[in-house]
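subagent[fold] <- orchestrator: predict structure for attached chain, return tokens only, no commentary.
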Amino acid sequence: MTFKRLTDLDVSGKRVFIRADLNVPQDDELKITDDTRIRAALPGIRYALEKGAAVMVTSHLGRPAEGEFKPEDSLAPVAGRLSELLGRNVRLIRNWVDGGFEVKPGEVVLLENARCNQGEKKCSDELSQKMAALCDVWVMDAFGTAHRAEATTYGMGRYAKVACAGPCVASELEALGKALADPVRPLLAIVGGAKVSTKLTVLESLSAKVDQLVVGGGIANTFLLASGRKIGKSLAEKDLVDQAKTVMAKVHVPLPTDVVCAKEFSATAQATVKSVDEVADDDLILDIGPQSARALAGIVAQAGTVVWNGPVGVFEMAPFAGGTRELARAIAASKAFTLAGGGDTVSAIKVFDIQDRVGYISTAGGAFLEFLEGKRLPAVDILESRAGD
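subagent[fold] -> orchestrator:
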């Protein structure tokens, strides 16, 4: 992939518009509960400020109705946290599409929730042009929204004088390219989650690229069913058994040999380790067993590249966290290039405290999965098309 990077440009005295991903979780009092995404946006903002640019930053937050601004949709809490992290006041500009506000070189302002603007989600041409007129350089630095063709994530890239990738997007694309386009072999993919249906296209795409494909969670139950095993009353999708068989015919899918079962889905349920051949009709499979976890750790140890998306058990419940914990430890100890992404995966990484021992952690959800599927991402397309300008 070829695209311009913010860090390659001279932005001194330029008006720089950064589309960041500041869609942070908040509690009922609208207090930020996790500022990871805000911190991730800091390198791009700091770079532009240090180079003497007049910096404008915007993002979406939640799912507001376009054209209907409500207090709970405001980026005000984000402006406050940005001010703290940057050590300077970050003004919040409410009505910004038509301009009428001043930003001096070396100053940064936050532009109110982008999705409150009519035409944002449908990538209105008129809106995109108005926004692009505000800046000299448009910076796409929100990989989590790269799969959406919206005015601030795509449309502006068509009309801005210069379009480039910020540090977040650039590092994300480099990591994904390293893992999938030119990986060190063997290439191992680990895909967990509740349902095959939500990740079927990912599984089908990866089956043609990887050397081994490990499945976990409810997805593994469907694959166990496809291999002729009994899974009791475990979560599975019987109508996708044939698709699971097709995937297994393309690539080696090592399945669990032992599992952790319970009679009910509860953190207080009695957990019992069983061979996969001993699963009873009233059992729920909620994790892989210790033998399977050791085997998985061995597979990870032999890999040259590991792509991880999704836990292998219900790790949020202590009795069923063992498999994901052993997987996390194996990835942390691996000498391979490791790439992890997706909400549940990032949560597991934090729970098992291996943040500093994973090669690259993607905070993106949908965009990460669509990249794994081999889909073209609109934001990446526009960056590549503007690379020669």
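orchestrator: received. Logging for downstream: The chain has two domains: 6-167+377-385, 185-335. The chain has 13 helices and 14 strands.
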